[in-house]
Amino acid sequence: MGLLRSVEPELLDQMATDDPRVVRARRDLKRLNAVILQTGIMVRLLAQYWGDGRPRTILDLGAGDGTFMLSVARRLAARWPGVTATLLDRQNIVSQKTREAFGALGWKVETVAADVFVSIEPASRGLRAAPQQVRTAREPALVGDRLQRGQPA
Pick the residue with more confidence: 7 or 77? Predict the structure, then answer.
């Protein structure tokens, strides 16, 4: 029996990006990701999924300020040159410093400020997403050109 999932807007997405509570919450999320070693977990999952290959594009749903994916990119850039990281979030809060850091790794970065279920026409961007593919914010729900292992996009 599968776990039923419901995707709801985050409170942070409805508040001003410079609200002190939002700034603290995003800082706390970064700390939590560090404590639970989330970057290493994601790097291992992506490496296992792709094996000897590499994606052309990685889509991060709920990317926030992009620093989590940047930490992943730092660990993968030597093995995976030239990847495009598409950072999708309801608010565009990716700083110029973060963008430049992706570039210094040889990765391209694209930001999309939108609600994935409402504002984006996935087929027009070459991406496909459906609610059942959206998992927790940090699971690799959509990676590269394939939705799931063995299923072409």
Answer: 77
